[in-house]
Amino acid sequence: MLKVVRVTSDSVTLQWNAPYSDGGSEITRYVVLRQHAAAGERWEEAGRVAGAAATSFTVQRLREGAPYHFAVYAVNRAGSGDRIETARPVTPKRLISTSCRLILMLAGLIDITHYDLFLLLAEYGPGARFTKYLKIYVTVL
After folding, report:
1. pLDDT tens digits for 49-108?
2. Do 65 and 132 lie in a common domain?
3. What is the mean pLDDT of the segment spanning 45-51?
4. What's the rounded Cα separation, in Å, for the pair 69 and 38?
5. DSSP run (H or E) holding 31
6. Cβ distance 29 to 45 under 8 Å?
7. How confident is the model at residue 22 (pLDDT cuts 50, 70, 90)?
8. Domain span at 122
9. Fewest C-beta in 10 Å: which of 13, 52, 88, 93?
10. Tens of pLDDT along 96-137?
11. Are 118 and 137 a contacting pair, CB within 8 Å?
């Protein structure tokens, strides 16, 4: 299974497990592929990872807001293994905009050791134009 473990505005970090079987020949590298999720786009190599032990890779220089598919396959002396892919497209983006303003914060006690926190933030884009509200719910232990 190919997992996405981190997303930034221009990169995605992927992680995977080594294959159950190497067919009797040690894995020499993994090849990481990317594909723009737009119809008709072809797969292109995003990078290579040397050795069998390294099972993560950060794909860089991605376009913010553009969805991508990712895939990885192992290579050894016998050839290439089966490709594993992300389950759905991944879109590089900032997690929280740097131009947010706190509108409302509410806290509610659940019991003596827990409370809920609700934040309502207003996000502003270029030219200080309002773009959307961000609602964040957190239970603090």
Report:
1. 998 889 999 999 999 889 999 999 999 998 999 999 999 999 998 765 556 666 667 777
2. no
3. 95
4. 10
5. strand 29-36
6. no
7. confident
8. 100-140
9. 88
10. 555 666 666 777 766 666 677 777 777 776 666 666 777 777
11. yes
Q: Find out whether 40 and 32 touch, Cβ atoms under 8 Å.
A: no
Does residue 24 belong to any structural domain of this protein? yes
Task: Please compute Rg for the chain using Cα positions.
Answer: 21
Beta strands at 114-124 and 130-140: parallel, antiparallel or unpaired: antiparallel
User: Phi and psi for 4 in degrees, rounded to 5?
Assistant: -95, 120
**Are 11 and 35 in a shared domain?**
yes
51 within domain boundaries: yes
What are the DSSP calls for 62-125, one per residue? PPTT--EEEEEEEEETTEE---EE-SS-B----SS-SSEEEEEEEEEEEETTEEEEEEEEEEE-
pLDDT of residue 100: 66
Q: Give the chain's domain count.
A: 2
| 18 in a structural domain | yes
Residues 131, 67, 83, CA angle at the centre, nearest 5°? 160
Residue 31 lies in a domain: yes
